[in-house]
User: Fold these one by one.
Assistant:
Number 1:
Amino acid sequence: MQTRTVTRLWQQERQLWTGDSARFARRLSPACLMAFPDGAILRGAEILRSLSAAPRWQAVEMHGQRLSEHHGAVVLAYRARARHAGRADYDCLCTSCWVPRDGVWQMIQHHQAPLAA
């Protein structure tokens, strides 16, 4: 995989934490599944509805980034520390799966596993 593509995927992953919901909508496959620590498992439009009502993260740091590619799909794995104003940092392990669709990379899976403080 080209370094430029890898860099772009990591940038897109970061922007999905902190960017607006319109950016998220462009990068999210309608078939995407997300599993969150509160027990919610959401798909496609459910994800977009839940995000439009939720405050966006102000900043995220990613550490220990790993990448695996198989049959054109790319899995990103990393530790994240996200911040909201006036709240404790949120630390978690994440995985996301991205696939190319019509020349655009789209997320088809995301999972967050919180880490104890």
Number 2:
Amino acid sequence: MSRIAAAVHVVTTDGPAGRMGATVSAVCSVSDDPASVLVCVNRSSRVHAAILENKVFCINTLATAHEDISDVFAGRGNLGMDERFQRTAWTPLATGCPALEDALLSVDCDVHSITEMGSHSVIIGTVADLRMNEPGGSLLYVRRGYHALHG
């Protein structure tokens, strides 16, 4: 799987289970009507339980300058969740989920369905809000390292 190149995202959630976030690469658009996306999240992660309880999530697509944010939300540095969010600026979107202010794209979603596969859940969300910033280079992850895609 490490040879499959993927864009890097931080999935966030907020609500009764609290504010959480994690770095993910398994994200995909599902449908235009209704607008929907999916994210695959490890069931043993804290963010998984929080998304299920909060019933909302936001996909934040990272730019090439966000390697440090990716690392922090991947757990490198062993920072607490509040410390992770304090590393950069966030704005709540329609569902209340934190959107990274300078993300290339933030897709705010209500949970529509959840399917379990192996160690992960495939969580499909319907789009409640969307924010795009100026185009820039995308952060990719392949062969256990970061790479830049300039567009």
Number 3:
Amino acid sequence: MTRGRTAPDLADRYGLARPGRRRAVVVASAVVAVLAGGWLVWTAWFHGSPQATSQLVSWEVLDAEQVEVSFDVSLDEGVVAQCRVEALNRNKAAVGSAVVVVPTDAGDADGGRITTTFRTTSEATAVDLVGCTTPDQRRPR
């Protein structure tokens, strides 16, 4: 305590609480939370349900310059996809690749099994299905 002075009243020093300001902060926080939650739900749904997906089924090295690959494609109705397959040598360097256009009438209405043969520059020891893309889905799946 100081001599001759009284401790200032907190309301005089900092002002009175304004109830309207607290209400505005709560409402603004609720709006931001609803918008962020909506964006999170939309993002999870959009990225969790791609238009095209693919899965490698089998591959076979036919000779030192050819590989045969089979993979399954699942498409949304009316979607055309491009699927990329790469052949790799023992050093994991790409020695060949193929881009296969998969229309909606491939196999059945939603994709199906695709088998393709493509040339390589040297003997492949592995095959990588990079994935399928569509005009609205740029990330291969």
Number 4:
Amino acid sequence: MDILSLFVIVPLITILGLVFTRNLKQARIVAMLGSIIQLGMSINLVFAYFKERAINEDIMVFTRDMIWFKQFNIYYSVGVDGISVALLLLTSIVVLAGVFISWKMYDLPKEFFISLIVLSIGVYGFFISIDLFTMFVFFEIAVIPMYLLIGIWGSGPKEYSAMKLTLMLMGASAVLLVGILGIYFNSDADGGALTFNILEIAKVNIPFEAQKLFFPLTFIGFAVIGALFPFHTWSPDGHASAPTAVSMLHAGVLMKLGGYGVFRVAMYLLPEGAIDWSWVFIILSVIGVIYGAFSALKQTDLKYINAYSSVSHLGLVLFALLMLNKTAWNGAILQSLSHGFMTALFFALIGMIYERTHTRDIAKLGGLLKVIPFISVVYVIAGLASLGLPGFSGFIAEMNIFVGAFQNEDVFIRVATILSVAVIVITAVYILRVVGIMLMGPVKNEAYLKLERVTWYEKSGILLLLIPIVGIGVAPLWLSDMILESLQPFIQGLI
């Protein structure tokens, strides 16, 4: 059994174990053990990757092929580079943290954890796939459980939010499928056989007219799940209605499929189309960065604040990818990782605060630093990382993005970069505004003086997410070098 397929098989075994559980205690132990094994696998993969890369200069390592549909040349093809490895590590950490944060899920716990693990299978499979069809199948597997997770275990207008999310993402999937089929039917442009294999298609000179047609379809198909403006509206409502662990996976992992798909498929396979269309999507991504920040500034619900903040931060990822240079792309991947840990941590903390105070309205909160100091201090740290303070992962990511973007001498791009940089000020305002209202000052409600203390499983979930935020900020070079090395084959297609 190859090392990558275990990322699909182990979660499937975990689901099988969950099927036979009888109560909450058994369900959470099985889910926790399965998630710990997955985290151990991803850590082992990091070391195995460095060892393999020392002797293997292929674009992807640990590649495996197994015929699936011979008639259409569809294979179960897997492989990873440094970018895939980093995102697999992110996924395993967020999944385990989500299990800890859902420790007290009393309502249909077995079904909840099964749905959560199914979502993780889709994400793992997406990141290891190098066959477009297989990648699309895993993409759908990741998206479908969201409807159940929000519709059954959510709160507020959960049916509306679940339906809105599902319809918009399925609509994007339909557009994406057209783009993928367009790439497939042009993969024989140099006289070879039709193929879905990404590495094989990259060797083909797809006609410019076909690239112009299918790049926007592929870009939009992936970027909708990455909160591209104006197709982002599913995200805030979905976050607000989702249970805590689902919000963590939704923002921390699921939305990363968008940027990764844009990079791995749209940019790599359709580089001339990317150059031709870049100005359109640069405008949309910058609008998303600015709009998300100002929208977060106006919100009073903690989940909506974090949701619109995600729209802004992920707009930076798309903006960086459209810069079409190595430094900005490095920043885009680092921003994806940083945002994944950061926003999952935010949603975990918001869930803990809501469980204790029964409100997410910052106007009704106050003085929480005095009564739940651990949660409050970690919230401040997450906020400082979000606004890009040196020493945290957000600073490393944003510096690479802005330096890479400003390397381009085009006036249009430099103006777009300045606008994006200016949003850091707005981010600081809404982060410090929440900290000031919610954590500082006198305790507004006497009932808050008796709030429940932080439990061991909550601390475990928080520390799993906090350590990488600080670790990447303090010692980023090993991760940055791994990403930069993997970017080289992709950037060559744009030179």
